[in-house]
Amino acid sequence: VQLQASGGGLVQAGGSLRLSCASSGRTLSDFGMGWFRQAPGKEREFVAAISWRGTFTEYGDSVQGRFSISRDNAKNTLYLQMNNLKPGDTAVYYCAAREWSGPTGPVTATDQFDYDYWGQGTQVTVSS
Q1: With contact defined as beta carbons under 8 Å apart, do 125 and 104 qualify?
Q2: 17-24 and 2-6 strand pairing
Q3: Which long-range contacts (CB under 8 A, 24 or more apart) does 43-46 make?
Q4: With bands split at pLDDT 50, 70 and 90, how would you rate the model's confidence at 106?
Q5: What is the per-residue pLDDT for 77?
Q6: pLDDT tens across 7-54, in order?
Q7: Is residue 108 exposed (0-12), middle (13-18) or buried (19+ Cβ within 10 Å)?
């Protein structure tokens, strides 16, 4: 599967952005999905995850209540709605996909090493 992230840009603090991640090659419903971000000089950080049908979601502590992950499997697209953005949200944002882990596997995953495929990233810059 190929993942293409888009929607990043420059926004003032308090503003909003919506990121998209389009999949091709395989249907999005084959995968659990997640968003991660990496700021300069920092490790990659978990942002949000969503289960295969979108029933379950999970968020990193720093974005809880401000960001919302969703998916449209019919459009093969993953989204990340980001509200009340802060300068600390400045980073390259990556979407990632993981293969179905079976009926007893976790419905969401926060560890980047649980993901099998990655998009190229989109830059989000929040000015103060």
Answers
A1: no
A2: antiparallel
A3: 44/94, 44/112, 45/91, 46/110, 46/111, 46/112
A4: confident
A5: 98
A6: 999 999 999 999 999 999 999 999 999 999 999 999 999 999 999 999
A7: buried
The two structure tokens encoding residue 32: 């659990």
Which residue do the tokens 């909003």 mark?
16
Q: Give the number of C-alpha atoms closer than 13 A to the C-alpha of residue 13, restricted to the C-beta side.
A: 5
Q: How far, in Å, CA of 36 to CA of 21, rounded?
A: 12
Q: Where are the alpha helices (DSSP H) in 1-128?
A: none
Place of tokens 């971000």: 37
